[in-house]
Amino acid sequence: QVQLRESGPGLVKPSETLSLTCTVSGGSVSRGSYYWSWIRQPPGKGLEWIGSIYYTGSTNYNPSLKSRVTISADTSKNQFSLKLNSVTAADTAMYYCARVDKVGAPFDYWGQGTLVPVSS
Amino acid sequence: SYVLTQPPSVSVAPGQTATITCGGNQIGSRRVHWFQQKPGQAPMIVIYYDSDRPSGIPERFSGSNSGNTATLTISRVEAGDEADYYCQVWDNSSDLYWVFGGGTKLTVL
Q1: Which pLDDT tens digit goes with each residue over B80-107?
Q2: A47:B90 CB<8 A
Q3: B24 touches chain A (CB under 8 A)
Q4: Taking Cα atoms as reference points, which of A46, A32, A42, A38 lies closest to residue A8?
Q5: Does B44 contact chain A (CB < 8 Å)?
Q6: Closest CA to B58 of B87, B21, B18
């Protein structure tokens, strides 16, 4: 059974960089045809795809966030990470990591999410 | 970029049928997935590839997709179905990315 777990600081200051890590168990970030993804949800609002990293290491980002986002993977730890720089209060959200097993497929496994407030 | 449009809210009495729509340009040519999200929980897939149902999802949940509208239908609605529902597609028209609808709050009266 694949499990994902997000971790990272509970609070980020405006203009700083938000950094989160997703630890994967029961599956490998470096094998298969999987896309490992980040999705966020501001309080009381809908879901927004942030970006994904393919098992080969190639990445795709939401055009609205592309200039501020970097997703990378650490295969030795079976983790993938999100960095979002120059954050503002609008980046306050629940951040989820999730898996897609191939192009066009749904997000089939999700982490429980981690709330990241952006505040001074 | 591709846009998916959902009604903000749908209300239905227990035992009745709830219909949640997801509009998009020629969405019938794409494969649509539906997620259910209850308060404090991560989203969970209830319908994938337009009309397939994961194991453990009741047969009361069904999906269809044609033209410019995809539809999630919940028959014999129960109180436990009250949740937010999101449609989602994969779009590669300009770049490779995933799109969510704005979500629909299903209220069971």
Answers
A1: 999 999 999 998 876 768 999 999 999 9
A2: no
A3: no
A4: A38
A5: yes
A6: B18
Least Cα distance to A82 among A28, A40, A38 occurs for A38
- Cβ atoms of B96 and B1 within 8 Å: the answer is no
Q: Which residues pair with A54 in a beta bridge?
A: A35
As to burial, measured by CB atoms within 10 angstroms (0-12 exposed, 13-18 middle, 19+ buried), residue B44 is middle
Written as six digits, the tokens of A87 are 């954050």
Indicate the burial class of A9 (C-beta count within 10 angstroms; 0-12, 13-18, 19 or more).
exposed
Q: Hey, are the CB atoms on A103 and B97 less than 8 Å from each other?
A: no
Instruction: Please give the backbone phi and psi of residue A90, each rounded to the nearest 5 degrees, phi first.
Output: -65, -15
Q: In this structure, what token pair is assigned to residue B31?
A: 């494969």
Chain centroid to Cα A112, Å, comes to 12
Instruction: Say whether B42 and A96 touch across the interface (CB within 8 A).
Output: yes
Tell me how far apart the alpha carbons of residues B102 and B84 are, in angstroms, rounded to a whole number.
Answer: 10
User: For residue range B29-68, what is the model confidence (pLDDT) as tens digits?
Assistant: 999 999 999 999 999 999 999 999 999 999 999 999 999 9
The SS3 assignment for B64 reads strand
Closest CA to B52 of A115, A71, A20, A108: A108
